[in-house]
Amino acid sequence: MLDWGGPAAAKLADLAIKAAKRLSHFEDRDPATVEWTIRMWANVSPPGALNMSHAHPGVLWAAVYYVDMGSPPADGDPGGELFFEDPRFPVPLMRLPGFRLKGVDGQPQPVEQRLLTRAGDLVLFPAWVRHGVRPHHGTGDRISIAMNIDVKG
User: Fold this and answer.
1) DSSP strand E in the chain: where?
2) What's the whole-number mean pLDDT along residues 25-44?
3) Disulfide-capable partner of 53 in 49, 132, 135, 153 (CB 3.0 to 4.6 Å)?
4) What letter would DSSP give residue 108?
5) d(CA 18, CA 31)
């Protein structure tokens, strides 16, 4: 995407890499001194589209920038939430189905967190975190830019 996206894609890549630098620590070097790499692609999601739970192995950070959310339905839930899975979730359930940890509020912790996003939002997260997108119930295409951010050797 950096080849065909022009100045807008370059600006978005720069913004995402700056965020990754602020959130990264290396034992032997300053994040500002390492060579960062980024791969970007566009997701165009028509009504009903979703992204199954997945992770981005082999890179440090994943990010998504929301360009257009489509149009919400006349009534009801527009859907399309970005969700993150609790990485601890599957292990206890393999042995004890229905088990969950309690939070500080005394309530069972959810196995996923949903994030409502808007056009213009940039979300950066560790690439190993499993995530996905709930079905889009609105009309029109939802457009987002996904990114894998890493460092060279």
Assistant:
1) 36-45, 51-54, 61-68, 82-85, 112-115, 122-126, 131-133, 142-151
2) 95
3) 132
4) B
5) 10
